[in-house]
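Anyone able to model this chain together with flavin-adenine dinucleotide?
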Amino acid sequence: MIGGGITGAGVLREAARRGLRAALIEQRDFAWGTSSRSSKMVHGGLRYLMVAHLKLTRDSVRERERLLREIPGLVDQLGFLFSTYRGKRPGRWSMNVLLTAYDLLAGRWNHRYYPAHEYTLLVPGIRPTGLKGGAQYGDAVTDDSRLVFRVIREAQQYGALALNYVTADNLITKKERVCGVAVRDAVSGESAEIFARVVVNATGAWADRLRKQVSGGTDIRPLRGSHLIFPYWRIPIAQAIGLMHPLDGRPVFLLPWEGATVVGCTDLDHDQDLDVEARITRQEVDYLLKMVDYQFPSLGIKCGDILSTYSGIRPVIGRGALDPSKEKRDHSIWVEKGLISVSGGKLTTFRLIALDVLRHVTRFIPELTVKDRGGTVFHMISSREFPTGSLDSSLRQRLAGHYGEEAREVVKFARQGELERVPGTDTLWAELRWAARAEAVVHLEDLLLRRTRLGMLLPEGGVSILDYVRSVCQEGLGWKDDRWHREVYAYRSLWRECYGVPGTNEKF
Ligand SMILES: Cc1cc2nc3c(=O)[nH]c(=O)nc-3n(C[C@H](O)[C@H](O)[C@H](O)COP(=O)(O)OP(=O)(O)OC[C@H]3O[C@@H](n4cnc5c(N)ncnc54)[C@H](O)[C@@H]3O)c2cc1C
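re: yes, here you go
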């Protein structure tokens, strides 16, 4: 498997569960690509239903239900509200039709409509002018990079190998068929060749690069989606809120996540170099701020309220639509000279995408059987199964969902006071210690941006906790002082350029 996002991780796990000897390589960190930069929703996607993508919506809501059952604490229920305004679409009746179809596809009745006077109690501060009311429905939210990591850890428990910071440079072919890859380790600089019966190219937005080596294929249209993160107290919402952007009528949202509020997202052609980490532009910041100000005029939200920003590249399969938002979002698979490439799709449907890839793998490994038997797919662990000390039930569930069977270890290795939350977030101090000790952290950014999300949830990238982080890194990773200083310098530069607000982050 080439690519350590949710797609590669999903295929790795499904392959290893079926007894295949499977290995995954990722050029940067696990989930470094789009899979740590999504909108964090595990959902059917009402917008897909609006444009009649029935199959994608049905598959997604069914997977949502499965994930909610199997990994609570990592994939959790979240109420969504959609405000309706006089003279604006969608109105009450079209929302009702849409949500009825949505619930029918999921097999669960989970929506209702509130008139304006009740709706404003659910969302204090919402723009009152022209408000007719709003619809409420149920979806789910996750920590996307932790989801990738959980899937990779399970694959490893089935015997798979997963390496970060290893790049696939060139495909190796024999008799016109791909039989391996020449790889390079970014840390040691060493090169090697890996041979396999099947090579899967799960490199998302980068997929055409490897495809070009065998077929010249260029189907990916990279679209950038950017988000803002605010401290929860500045936009205190208990449920997600969807609305149509007042400027262009695109669906946009505000979402409570990990003790903060996420606002997103844009959808623009991304014509920059894919090797340069994606970042938000000033125009995108202004576009999203305009939406917040429209929906919550009384909050007086300003640019200076933003905690952090992030951008992801959607690997959409270009079918020539003028408007990027009109391109279809389902996945595609190409089999070219034995190379199986997969791109597109959603975080939510990663398991179904993985099964689809494996069905193509059976052409080359006929003894493999790929049946979706409908049983449990995650190793489920009850939050009652590990010692908890002072942890409340929601934190126990968080640990069980995020770490599966390793939740016990996270608790076991916690020092005094580390089973407390890092102030202003839901993350425990113990999670930092565990990640540094056991979760393949190579750089400081891996720890603060993907194993935990503290770099996005704390002011100025988490500068206030760096002394503590230094102690866990020096102990868990053996970093000497000069390595620590280099890591901090690199992290601060990256944060300024890719996670801050353009033009305003000189202080960090
Ligand atoms: C803005 C935005 C919001 C989204 N919101 C949602 C949402 O709310 N819910 C949802 O379900 N889906 C959402 N999605 C879609 C979802 O995030 C993506 O479909 C999914 O993350 C893609 O995963 P992937 O593994 O295919 O790609 P990626 O996560 O990008 O992984 C590909 C990996 O391949 C690596 N790679 C590339 N070239 C090489 C090489 N030569 N050697 C080794 N490694 C290589 C890259 O470094 C990268 O990490 C969103 C997408 C975007 C952009």
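The longest strand covers residues 131-142.
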